[in-house]
Structure formats: C-alpha cells, structure tokens
Specification:
The structure is a homodimer.
Chain A lengths: L3 H20 L8 H10 L5 H8 L3 H13 L3 E6 L2 E9 L1 H21 L5 H26 L7
Antiparallel strand pairs in A: 1-2
Helix pairs in contact in A: 1-5, 2-5, 3-4
The structure holds a DNA duplex.
DNA sequence: GACCATTTGTTGTATTTACAACAAATAAGA
DNA sequence: TCTTATTTGTTGTAAATACAACAAATGGTC
C-alpha cells in the first residue's frame, strides 16, 4: 500500500489552511470560500447539492450558507414550483469577492503544480478524477448509514 | 487551470468523513486516528513534529494528543536530555487499535484505487509527492506569518 | 386520493479546530 | 557569559463541523 491517500490528506489540509488564512482579509471565515465558489459557479443550486459536491455534512453546509447569507454574500430565493427548496445565488458583494478567491486558487494551483509538465498535470487530473469517483460512491453510501464490509 | 486541487479536496473530505464514522466503533472521535497512526509509526516523536507531518495547527495537535492520552491510547514520556519536550508513545491499548485503523485504511486504499493499474498507481504516487512537497513549503511559510505574493 | 418513502431544511448539542497570547526551555550569537 | 531568537508547550476564546432528531414538502405507488 503506497501512501497515496496520505499525500492527498496532507495536500488538502495544507491548502485549506493557507486559503483560510488568506481569505480572512475578505471577512471569510473558515471554509466559507468553498461554498461561495460553488454557488457562484452554479447559481440557483440548492444547499443539499452543494454539500454533495463538497463532500461535507448537510448540516455543515446549511450553517455555512446561513452565515454567507447573513453576511450578505449569498441570497436564498424561493423556487416558484417547489416550496421546499431554496435556490442560492451570489449577491453583488458575493460576485465581487469571487474573483479574488479564484485568483488565490490560481496561485495555489501554480505553486502546487510547479515543476510538473503539461502532460503530467493532465495525467494527474485524469487519475484523480477516477479516484474521486471511486471514493464518492463509498462516501454517499456510508453517509446514508450503510456499513462497508472488509 | 484544471481542477486538480478541487479533486484533492473532495477526495480528502470524503475519506476523512468515512474514517471518522467507521472509527467511532473504537471510541476514536473525529480526527484522532490521524495522530494515533503517526505516533505508532514514529514512537518517541514530539507533538510539534506530528502537527508538521499532518499539516494541522500546533494547538490542534496538542489538544488531539491530550485527548488520546486522556483516553489511554497514547503516553507522554519526559526526555532525559531535554526538559521541554514530551516524547509520545502508543500504550498497549493504542497498539491494539492501530491494526484496525490500518485495515480500514487498506480498504479505503483499495476502493479509491480500484481500476487503476499498478503503473498508474505508481505514477499517481510520484506526482502527488511532488505536489505535496511544493505545497508544504508554502504552508510552512504562511503558518509562520509570511505573506504570499501574487 | 391516500399512504409511505424520500428529499430538503432546521435546531440542539457536543466536539474539534485554530488563532492569540503567554510561558518556559533551549539554541545561537555577540 | 549574557542576550536574544527559536522551539515547544499550554490555556482562553471563538468558530466550524457533524450527529441526532425533528418537521414539512414532494414524489411515487396502490
């Protein structure tokens, strides 16, 4: 067993840590940038789907988005055909912050992939997508209460 | 910019989530498995180094390890030549839990890498190590209070 | 239409996480 | 040796995270 998953964990924690420190400048507290980005990229998305995309707990997403709303970065709108769901949209302020987040992400991308050729970057992306799809299935199952057998 | 870092984040959160659910069975609360594994693999390590390896905040590691100690899974021993540091060792109970964690990790490894050939796994590992080393440098710098320019 | 499972959202609560600030031991430099 | 910087560890505090439990709307099935 090569320590692939361990490398992934280290990279993820390090980058998240950096982003959280850097985004304090925009009054974004821990983790908020994740949600804002997804909502900007998918205006009209509902929070349940955001949680699924990010692989965080439903209630965590709910509270993070509540806070984004409270801070005026995101807006909840009623759906005309479905009284249960709230469609999420960035506010003008949210749209304004978005490019700064993307700029930071682009920088982290550059740092992280420094020294990798175009081909290597490509290979890495393809492989990671496959890994993510594999893991995704187990995550959804376990979150629904199913037990993995091994 | 391909969304490599996004894939890494998703994979890391999903796997962490699964592990946390599965390890509740062993009375390990959120995140604790990370610390226990590193201490079992590096008996005598100090908490500062554990935090560095995991890329978590020093104080987070401190409290996680405090709890492991309190729950009888890890033991702190004085160093004979240095009154400042505490050397960490797994207790008998810690050693007992360790293989269960590794078994779970091996299963997650299998799931995550399903469908990847030996060569692909190898390539992925090499590339991720390079990415991790890149990110590591920035993380250490930012954690020390330095500002990244971009 | 009535019934039941699923989806979506919320609140209460416990715990983890991290920043800030401090303290003490050690290491380094003059 | 004295002074200063670095390393290592702790505590106070604020916030995020997730689980459990609940509620309500929806969708499917008979």
């Amino acid at each position: 067993m090569k320590e692939i998953l361990r490398e992934i964990g280290m990279i993820a924690r390090a980058l998240d840590s950096i982003s959280n420190i850097e985004f304090k400048e925009f009054d974004l507290t821990k983790g908020q940038y994740l949600y804002l980005v997804r909502i900007c990229e998918h205006p009209g998305i509902i929070q349940e789907k955001v949680a699924e995309m990010l692989k965080v707990d439903r209630t965590t997403a709910a509270r993070a988005i509540q806070k984004l709303e409270h801070n005026g970065l995101v807006e909840k709108r009623d759906d005309p055909h479905n009284r249960k769901i709230n469609r999420l949209f960035p506010t003008a302020k949210g749209e304004q912050v978005f490019p700064y987040i993307m700029r930071e992400h682009a920088h982290s991308d550059n740092v992280a992939l420094a020294g990798l050729s175009e081909t290597e970057t490509d290979v890495l992306f393809q492989l990671l997508q496959r890994v993510r799809k594999n893991v995704e299935m187990d995550w959804e199952s376990v979150k629904k209460g199913n037990k993995r057998e091994y």
